[in-house]
Amino acid sequence: MITIDKVRKSFDGIDAVTGISLTIQKEQVFGLIGTNGAGKSTLLRMTAGILQPDSGSITVDNLPVFDNPAAKSKVYFISDEPYFFPNSSAEDMLHYLRTVYPRFDADRFRALLDDFGLDPKRQISHYSKGMKKQLAVICGVAANTDYLLCDETFDGLDPVMRQGTKSLFAHEMTDRGLTPIIASHNLRELEDICDHVGLLHRGGLLLSEDLADMKLGIQKVQCVFKNDREMRFALAGLRVVHREDHGRLITLIVRGERDEIIQHFKGVDPVFFEILPLTLEEIFICETEVAGYDARKLILG
Amino acid sequence: MTQENSSSDKCSFWSRERELTGRRSWTLALTLLLYAIFHIVQTVLLLSGAASSYTSASEKAKHIRNLHETAISILGTESFNWIVTISCGLLLAMQGFSWVDSRQRLDFYESQPVSRKTRFIKISLNSLFIFLTAYITTGAVGMIIITGMRAMSGAVFASCLMQLLRSVILFTDIYALSVLAVMLTGNIIVALFLDGAMLLYEPLMRYLIHDFCVTFFRTYVTDSSYGHTSHSPLLWFALKAEPHVLLMGVLLGILAMALAWLAFRMRKNEMAGRAVLYKPVRIILKIAVSFAVAMVAIPVVYTTTSSTPVCCAIIALAALVTGCIIEIVYAFNFRRLGAHPAGAVIAAVLAVSVFLMFRYDAFGYDSWLPRAEDTIDAWVVYDNGYITDRYLEDGSDASYNGSYEQAYMHLTNIDAVNRLLQAGYNWTKANVENDSGNIVLSAPDTDISYHLVIGFRMRDGRTVTRSVYLPDTTNAAVMDDVFGTDAFREGYFPIYHDSAIRKKLKNIRIEYTDGKNISDDLPAETYYDAFKNAYEADLKQFSWSFAKSRVPVGKVSLIIGSGADPSSSAINCPVYAEFSRTIAFLKENGIYLEPLGDPDIDTAWSLAGPFSETTLNEEMQELGIE
What we know:
The complex is a heterodimer.
Chain A: E1 2-11, E2 14-24, E3 30-33, H1 40-47, E4 55-60, E5 63-64, H2 69-72, E6 75-78, H3 90-100, H4 106-115, H5 129-142, E7 147-151, H6 159-176, E8 179-184, H7 187-190, E9 196-201, E10 204-210, H8 211-216, E11 218-224, H9 228-236, E12 239-246, E13 249-255, H10 258-268, E14 272-276, H11 280-290, H12 295-299
Parallel strand pairs in A: 3-8, 3-9, 6-7, 7-8
Antiparallel strand pairs in A: 1-2, 1-4, 4-5, 9-10, 11-13, 11-14, 12-13
Helix pairs in contact in A: 3-4, 4-5
Chain B: H1 13-23, H2 25-49, H3 57-75, H4 82-96, H5 103-110, H6 116-148, H7 154-184, H8 188-216, H9 233-238, H10 243-266, H11 279-304, H12 308-331, H13 341-359, E1 375-382, H14 403-408, H15 414-431, E2 432-435, E3 438-441, E4 450-458, E5 463-470, H16 476-483, H17 486-492, H18 499-503, E6 508-513, E7 522-523, H19 524-539, H20 544-548, E8 554-560, E9 569-575, H21 580-588, H22 601-606, H23 613-623
Antiparallel strand pairs in B: 1-4, 2-3, 4-5, 6-7, 6-8, 8-9
C-alpha cells in the first residue's frame, strides 16, 4: 500500500501539490487524472522518491520512500521521457537494470521484447518515440517491482500497442499482484483499465473513488414521455444530477442503483426509457459540476 | 522469473562497479591514452635521444646521471604528468556527476533503489579506479622501458613512487573540488566556472597582493615568492610540494569530499538546471567574483591613471558590472541584472578599500619595524657587493639570490638592525618613488650608494623582508653596528661556510692578482687551511667604515675547476693593505704581487671590495670619468 499523507510541494513559490492525502491499495490499477500542471508528475515523482515533499509523508508498504533503497526496490518509475544510455541497446539496458533491481527477470525481459517486436541489439536511439515507451514499459514490468508508476505512458502509443500494454498490466496483476499507478490527462484512455481514480486540479485532489462504486450509484437514462405533466411526475421522484433535452428525448444522469431506477420508470409509464452505460468522463463531469467545477475543462484531453 | 536472473549477485557492489566501468570505457580509454603519451611515448623519445657514446669513465658517469635525470623528468617528481592528472580529475568528476543537471536522467537514477550515499561512493571509487589503472599501467610500462634503457636506479624508482603518491593526492583534490562545484551548481558550464574559481582564487589573490605590493610599496622585495597556497592544489603541486604540504593536500581532499557529499545529500532535484543551487553559495560567489574582478582592475587602472578618485570609481564600477552579469547568469534572464544589489555593493566597497589601503600604505608597510622580543634574528643582503661566487654547504649556487646570507647570517642585535632599517626607510621615502612597480629616484641627481635587503626571522615562523636604499653619508655607527659584527662577516664572506669548497679542494687552485697581473697558483689541498686561518683573522678588522674608505690592493681567488673552462667558478677574497696575515701568507708561499701603487680606474674597479663604490665613484669624478 502506498500512503500519501498531507503532502505539499512548491517550486519557486508556486504550489505544485497542496496538501494531498491518498491511499493506493495493492493489486488495483490507480488512475491519476488531471490537466497539465495539475501536479500529477510531481506527485508521481515524489512517490518514486525522486523529489522530497516540503511537508507530509509518502510511504510504500510503511517505508518512507525518499532516499530509501528498501522502499524504492518495490517501485519502478516510468517517466514521461524515459532515459536510456547513449548508444545503448535494449540488451545493454538489461545488463544495467539487473544490477540495480534485485528481482529483475531477464528472461521475461527478452520474451516481452520479442512479443512487442523490438530488436534487443538495435540502438535505442534509432527507436521511434512509441518504441521507446514500449521499451520503458518492458523494463518496468521485467523489474518485478510491486508498484509500477507510469507518467503519461500511453501517450505516443498506437491503439494496438496501447491495448497490448493494458493486457500486459492485467496479466502482471493477475500473475504476481502488480499495482500500476497511471498518470494521464486523458480519461478515456484509462477508462477500461482503472479500478480507482484520483482527479487532481491545481495541485489539489478533487476526488478519489473506486470506479465501480462511482458507477453503482449513478445511472444514465434516456426517456420520452407522453406529455409534460407525466414528465414532471416521473422526474419528481428522481435525484437528477444532469439533464439534457433534445426535443422530446430527455437524457438524464441520476443518482441511484440501477434496479431502483428501473422500478421507478416502470411505475411512471413513459413512452420510452433506456438505461445506458456511463463513461468515466460523464461521471466526472457530473461529480465535479456538483463540486462547482466545470470538469470539461479539466479532463478533456 | 528464473533463479539465476534474479540473483542478488548481479546487484553486488563489484558487479555495479564493473558495469559502470563498462559504460565509462571511453573515459578510461582517453585517460589511458593521455598517460600513455606521457609515460610511454615520451620515455621512448627522450631516452633514445640521449647520447650513448662516451670515451671516459667520467663521461659515462655523466651520461648515466643524465639518463637518471631524464627518467625523473618523465615519471619522477620533475614530471609534467600533473597536467594529465588535473585534466583527468576534472573530466571524471564532471562526467561522473553530469546527470544531476538533467531532469530526465535524474528521474532515471534517483528512482532506482540505490541510495545517494552508495551512488556517490560508487562513482567516486570508479573514478579513482580509472585514474589508478591508467596511471599505474602506463607508468609500469614506462618504468620497464626506463630499466631496459639502463636509466633506472634506486633514486629514480623512489622518485617515481613519490610522484605516484603526489599524483594520487592531486587527483583526489581536483576530483573532490570539481565534484563540489557540480553539487553546488545545476549546470555543467557554471560548475566548470566555479571549479576554476575555487582552484585559482587563492593563487590569484596571492598574485594580486604581491602585485599590489610591487606597485604601491617602496620597500617591497620584488623577488619574494608568493608562498605556498593552502587551498589550491594547483600551485603547491607545481611548486614541488614538501612533505607537510602533501599532508595539507590530503586534508584538503578529505574536506572537499566531505563538503561535496553534504551538498549532494542536501541537493534538491527540482533545482536541476539552475546556475547555483544554494542561496548562501550564490551570495558568497557573487561577492567573491565581483571582488576578484575589481581587484584585477586595480593594477590595470592604476597604471593608466594616477588619479585616486578616478581609480576608485572604475574599480567600483568593475565590481558592480560583474555583479549584474552574475545575476543574469543565475537567472538566465537579462532583466534580472539589477537584482540583489547588496552583494555587488559589498564587493565594490571591499575592493576600493583594498586599493586605498595599499595606495596610502594604511598598515605602515614602508615603516614597519619588528619588536625584538618577536624576532629571532636578521640578515642583510648587500646588493652591490663585490663579485664572487658563493655556495651553500650542500653545494648549491648561492651567488646572486641572497640565499647565502639568509642561510648563514644571524644578526641578533635587532635594535641595531632596526636603526639601519629606519635609516633606510627615511632615505628611501624621501628620495625614491614607486612608479607603478618601477623604483625610480625622486630627483635625477640623487646618489644612491647602497641597496640593502634586510630580512627578519620571526618567532611565529614568518620571514619578513624589506628593501631599502641608503647613501654613503649614513651615520657610521648605524652602519658599523651591523656591518662591523662577526655575525655579518660570517654570513657575508663565503670563506666561513666552506663545506662545498672543501669537497672540491682537489680541483681548486689559489691565485692572487694585483688587478693587472696574476700570480702562479697554489694547490688548495695543501694551502687552503693556512690561507683560511690568515684571512679569517684579518677579516676581524672589516667593517663598513673600514671598507668604505679603502680600495683593496689585491684579490685572492679560489678557482674551482680549470681557469680555461668557462664553467669554472671563483671565490674572490679582497685583500686590503692592512691584511697583514694574509699578505704574509702570500709572501711566504711566493704568490704575492706588490700593489700597483696608482692603478688605473679599471684596475681599481676589478679589485673593488664591498662598500668601496663611493670611493671609486669619487675618484672617477675627480678624473672626469662618467
